DNA sequence: GCCGTTTTCGGCCCGACTGTTTTCAGTCG
């Protein structure tokens, strides 16, 4: 089982314990352990085999024995006991923003409600407001929350699906019967939330693959399988579909299964003009029933007299027209990125030392890195005082000098306070190389006020970048109410950059916002917002999202050379 | 449940908002 899956188990234990009313510090120990596992630089299985579990800080005797049990048996008896004790629906209720364990407990004990459906009904019938500490707003909040959960029902964030897909590929790639294996479906297109993991295998002997999957610890249950298709579900409840085709049909099947359905329909319409019929099993010229050879996806597009259209664009949002007219964007690539402009160190709420972040940036071949810790009012994140930031700047300056091969920017992620002012005086912000502004509090402001709040930050000439402009957390928190298009108008005037936050939990701006921002000519930055050196890795999710927003290298400030960036920052 | 080790018990990120109260518990970042 992977680190991520064990982390999920610990998180579920923590949720259930909290619902039970267990000691909060015990609960927190499980959460912390989950977080540690999630960010472990190597597979815990290896650590276990070296008998070094006890050396991981945060994992004591008891948690180590649970890890051991999970690795050995694929099960966790403690979790199974908790699951029997606590109805599954209560855990789902916890996902409603504003409903915590105490409220869920009250609802369960007083009204005997155990499912979201019952909860929704009770809220509609105004039965929740009769409970102690709850009122009409709680009911409204519950209904809104359930609606949000329904919208994301059955979908998983791309980052989670991607790591599972890559783990499965790693398991299957080495099999002699697997000639080729690739990601397909909406995950390949880079959608922010996906239905599950879709893989395509080119193989002449599919039977062996099925038996390997049946035994895989990553797979909880194979739901159906024949020699062309396997459908399974993982321990985290993620749906996995693996299609298997003859190797000579691989590319056609890959293109067809990647979709989107709308894109493929448009392709077929175009095929009709050329008397071509597209299907996963063959590209046929209808007159002579001649099967055309396909040696790559490019061939398919070429038969249709189109340039190759990358998967991220295949949504029928203008890519076919652009292809016909020869104006497909030259999409930004991961290799174009020259630095990360939003990273947290352990001076505030990050876990890595500055030097570790810098090393990670150098390993990625970056020209520059900005350290942007939190500002002073964000107490929980260990926001830094002016003095601390000055001290950090000195550290960065001398580190930069001693290393000599990377430019370090002394930055800060300054909170935009509810009244629109920033968390430091302008006179201080002037000292910083890079100022990122963002909202971390008072999310539920009314739209006009929130818009005005962010507008005033954009209008401050010292603000270089607006971070995570809508504040959403994928599948968990909706964007705050804000007139984004108006803010883009403002940003276009002030020349303020907007961020594409690459954290797979955020992806904010999203692809729609990015395309809009590009229309307005706003400079964009793709930043990881990493709180851990390993998470500089998340840049790739930002790139995919930027590509889906049709961005090119020139649109992205951290794809510029340092000299150009410096000029733009006025340094 | 973990940690420390000058502690084997007593801490553990902490302050503010929200919606409910009528002085505060619960939730969140």
TrEMBL record:
<dbReference type="InterPro" id="IPR027421">
    <property type="entry name" value="DNA_pol_lamdba_lyase_dom_sf"/>
</dbReference>
<dbReference type="InterPro" id="IPR047967">
    <property type="entry name" value="PolX_PHP"/>
</dbReference>
<dbReference type="InterPro" id="IPR016195">
    <property type="entry name" value="Pol/histidinol_Pase-like"/>
</dbReference>
<dbReference type="Pfam" id="PF14520">
    <property type="entry name" value="HHH_5"/>
</dbReference>
<keyword id="KW-0237">DNA synthesis</keyword>
<dbReference type="GO" id="GO:0042578">
    <property type="term" value="F:phosphoric ester hydrolase activity"/>
</dbReference>
<feature type="domain" description="Helix-hairpin-helix DNA-binding motif class 1">
    <location>
        <begin position="51"/>
        <end position="70"/>
    </location>
</feature>
<dbReference type="InterPro" id="IPR050243">
    <property type="entry name" value="PHP_phosphatase"/>
</dbReference>
<dbReference type="GO" id="GO:0140078">
    <property type="term" value="F:class I DNA-(apurinic or apyrimidinic site) endonuclease activity"/>
</dbReference>
<dbReference type="InterPro" id="IPR004013">
    <property type="entry name" value="PHP_dom"/>
</dbReference>
<keyword id="KW-0235">DNA replication</keyword>
<dbReference type="InterPro" id="IPR003141">
    <property type="entry name" value="Pol/His_phosphatase_N"/>
</dbReference>
<dbReference type="Pfam" id="PF14716">
    <property type="entry name" value="HHH_8"/>
</dbReference>
<dbReference type="GO" id="GO:0005829">
    <property type="term" value="C:cytosol"/>
</dbReference>
<dbReference type="InterPro" id="IPR010996">
    <property type="entry name" value="HHH_MUS81"/>
</dbReference>
<comment type="function">
    <text>Repair polymerase that plays a key role in base-excision repair. During this process, the damaged base is excised by specific DNA glycosylases, the DNA backbone is nicked at the abasic site by an apurinic/apyrimidic (AP) endonuclease, and POLB removes 5'-deoxyribose-phosphate from the preincised AP site acting as a 5'-deoxyribose-phosphate lyase (5'-dRP lyase); through its DNA polymerase activity, it adds one nucleotide to the 3' end of the arising single-nucleotide gap.</text>
</comment>
<dbReference type="InterPro" id="IPR037160">
    <property type="entry name" value="DNA_Pol_thumb_sf"/>
</dbReference>
<feature type="domain" description="Polymerase/histidinol phosphatase N-terminal">
    <location>
        <begin position="339"/>
        <end position="418"/>
    </location>
</feature>
<dbReference type="InterPro" id="IPR002008">
    <property type="entry name" value="DNA_pol_X_beta-like"/>
</dbReference>
<dbReference type="GO" id="GO:0003677">
    <property type="term" value="F:DNA binding"/>
</dbReference>
<keyword id="KW-0808">Transferase</keyword>
<dbReference type="GO" id="GO:0008270">
    <property type="term" value="F:zinc ion binding"/>
</dbReference>
<feature type="domain" description="Helix-hairpin-helix DNA-binding motif class 1">
    <location>
        <begin position="126"/>
        <end position="145"/>
    </location>
</feature>
<keyword id="KW-0915">Sodium</keyword>
<keyword id="KW-0548">Nucleotidyltransferase</keyword>
<feature type="domain" description="Helix-hairpin-helix DNA-binding motif class 1">
    <location>
        <begin position="91"/>
        <end position="110"/>
    </location>
</feature>
<dbReference type="InterPro" id="IPR022311">
    <property type="entry name" value="PolX-like"/>
</dbReference>
<dbReference type="GO" id="GO:0003887">
    <property type="term" value="F:DNA-directed DNA polymerase activity"/>
</dbReference>
<keyword id="KW-0488">Methylation</keyword>
<keyword id="KW-0227">DNA damage</keyword>
<dbReference type="InterPro" id="IPR043519">
    <property type="entry name" value="NT_sf"/>
</dbReference>
<feature type="domain" description="DNA-directed DNA polymerase X">
    <location>
        <begin position="1"/>
        <end position="315"/>
    </location>
</feature>
<keyword id="KW-0239">DNA-directed DNA polymerase</keyword>
<dbReference type="Pfam" id="PF14791">
    <property type="entry name" value="DNA_pol_B_thumb"/>
</dbReference>
<keyword id="KW-0832">Ubl conjugation</keyword>
<dbReference type="InterPro" id="IPR003583">
    <property type="entry name" value="Hlx-hairpin-Hlx_DNA-bd_motif"/>
</dbReference>
<dbReference type="GO" id="GO:0006281">
    <property type="term" value="P:DNA repair"/>
</dbReference>
<dbReference type="InterPro" id="IPR002054">
    <property type="entry name" value="DNA-dir_DNA_pol_X"/>
</dbReference>
<keyword id="KW-0234">DNA repair</keyword>
<dbReference type="Pfam" id="PF02811">
    <property type="entry name" value="PHP"/>
</dbReference>
<protein>
    <recommendedName>
        <fullName>DNA polymerase beta</fullName>
        <ecNumber>2.7.7.7</ecNumber>
        <ecNumber>4.2.99.18</ecNumber>
    </recommendedName>
</protein>
<dbReference type="InterPro" id="IPR029398">
    <property type="entry name" value="PolB_thumb"/>
</dbReference>
């Amino acid at each position: 089982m992977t680190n991520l899956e064990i982390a999920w188990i610990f998180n579920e234990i923590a949720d259930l314990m909290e619902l039970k009313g267990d000691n909060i510090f015990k609960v927190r120990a499980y959460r912390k352990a989950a977080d540690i596992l999630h960010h472990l630089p190597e597979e815990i299985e290896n650590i276990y085999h070296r008998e070094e579990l006890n050396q991981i800080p945060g994992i004591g005797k008891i948690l180590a024995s649970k890890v051991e049990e999970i690795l050995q048996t694929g099960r966790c008896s403690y979790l199974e006991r908790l699951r029997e004790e606590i109805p599954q629906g209560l855990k789902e209720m916890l996902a409603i923003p504003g409903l915590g364990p105490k409220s869920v407990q009250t609802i369960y004990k007083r009204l005997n409600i155990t499912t979201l459906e019952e909860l929704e009904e009770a809220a509609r019938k105004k039965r929740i407001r009769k409970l102690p500490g709850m009122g009409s707003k709680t009911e409204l909040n519950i209904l809104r929350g359930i609606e949000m959960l329904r919208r994301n029902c059955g979908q998983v964030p791309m980052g989670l699906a991607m790591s599972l897909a890559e783990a499965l590929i790693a398991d299957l790639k080495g099999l002699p019967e697997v000639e080729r294996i690739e990601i397909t479906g909406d995950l390949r297109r880079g959608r922010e939330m996906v239905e599950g993991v879709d893989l395509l295998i080119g193989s002449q002997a599919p039977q062996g693959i099925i038996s390997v999957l049946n035994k895989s610890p990553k797979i909880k249950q194979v739901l159906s399988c024949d020699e062309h298709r396997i459908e399974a579900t993982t321990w985290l409840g993620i749906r996995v579909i693996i299609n298997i085709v003859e190797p000579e049909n691989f590319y056609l099947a890959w293109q067809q299964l990647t979709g989107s359905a709308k894109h493929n329909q448009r392709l077929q319409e175009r095929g009709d003009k050329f008397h071509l019929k597209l299907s996963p099993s063959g590209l046929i010229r209808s007159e002579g029933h001649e099967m055309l050879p396909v040696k790559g996806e490019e061939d398919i597009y070429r038969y249709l007299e189109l340039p190759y259209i990358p998967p991220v664009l295949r949504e029928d949002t203008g890519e076919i027209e652009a292809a016909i007219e020869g104006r497909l964007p030259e999409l930004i690539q991961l290799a174009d990125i020259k630095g990360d402009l939003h990273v947290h160190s352990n001076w505030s709420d990050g876990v890595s030392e500055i030097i570790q972040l810098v090393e990670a940036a150098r390993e990625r071949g970056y020209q520059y890195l900005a350290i942007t810790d939190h500002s002073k009012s964000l107490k929980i994140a260990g926001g830094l005082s002016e003095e601390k930031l000055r001290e950090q700047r000195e550290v960065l300056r001398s580190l930069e000098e001693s290393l000599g091969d990377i430019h370090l920017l002394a930055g800060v992620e300054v909170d935009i306070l509810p009244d629109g002012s920033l968390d430091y005086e302008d006179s201080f912000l002037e000292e910083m190389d890079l100022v990122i502004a963002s909202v971390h509090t008072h999310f539920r402001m009314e739209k006009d006020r929130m818009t005005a709040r962010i507008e005033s930050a954009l209008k401050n000439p010292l603000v270089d970048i607006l971070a995570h402009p809508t504040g959403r957390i994928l599948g968990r928190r909706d964007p705050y109410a804000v007139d984004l298009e108006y803010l883009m108008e403002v940003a276009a005037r002030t020349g303020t950059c907007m961020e594409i936050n690459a954290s797979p939990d955020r992806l904010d701006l999203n692809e729609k916002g990015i395309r809009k921002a590009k229309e307005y000519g706003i400079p964009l930055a793709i930043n990881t917002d990493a709180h851990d050196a390993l998470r500089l890795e998340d840049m790739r999710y930002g790139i995919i999202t930027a590509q889906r927003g049709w961005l090119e290298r020139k649109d992205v400030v951290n794809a510029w050379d340092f000299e150009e960036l410096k000029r733009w920052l006025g340094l």
